[in-house]
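Protein modeling request. Please complete all fields; requests missing the sequence field cannot be processed.
Requester role: graduate student
Desired output: 3D structure, token encoding
Chains: 1
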Amino acid sequence: MKLPFIVFVLILCFAAPLPAQSPAPTPLDLVKQGEKLSRDGRQDQALALYRKAMQASPKLYEAHLGAGAALDLKGDYVPARREFAQAIDLAPPQSKPQAFRAMAISYAFQHNATQAAKYEGNAFNLHMAAKDYTTAAETADELARIYLESGDLDNAELWYRKGHDTAFLNRNMGPAEKDLWNFRWEHAQARIAARRGHHLEAEKHVAAAKAILDKRTNPNQQRFFPYLQGYVAFYGGDYKAAVADLQKADQHDPFILALLAQASEKSGNREQAMNYYRQILAINTHNPTNAFARPLAQRRVARAAG
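Delivered output (306 residues):
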């Protein structure tokens, strides 16, 4: 006897295996989801995921790092530093420098180079102990930049020099890498001289940096030259030249956008300046360039709205 068609279909449906359910996200999955939300500017939603990850895995230092970064981007610096302190305590030895650096950047958001130096210094010392001279040199340069943009020019020069000298402890350094670190040193000296008001000295270092680039051993560094020219022009008071140079630089770098905004303001173009400030607020990175750009943009945009 043949079964009715509807009965046959029902038998097939009940006999078919149920679709497999996706496994629940792990705490580290939650952190990665939170990082994506943070990059998209959805800091409160990111924080909710970081908290959930912490509840599931209280010793997951990555969750505290993510929460600290999200809080900094919101402008909640004190609770951000509590999260970074937890991350430093929980991080395994190989990740301590990352946690120290995140705390230093948190202080950079408020131009507090003295406190930032304690944490960048810890990271520098760890890299030196591991004889990782290249990363130690990069850490020294990062601290130097925090000093420079916080207005402490003497310590900026000291740490840029330390970064240059530390890089050269690497005995296996080839010609291209030597050119790279010499370019960075000339670049730094030009910016320091510009901040001191020594325009001729700044231009001398700009020319030296250009001569190194002309050797074409580091073509990927060419993109940093318009930024250098614009920086020197800005602090030399030539705001129109600064705008022209900085517009050729990386338009995804919030610090460059901040210089462009300020140069536009000083050139009398407030509308253009506000466009640059709004672009900065759409960038959600936790690094020194944003540490100095974002709070300025937040103040300018709030003042324009209020």
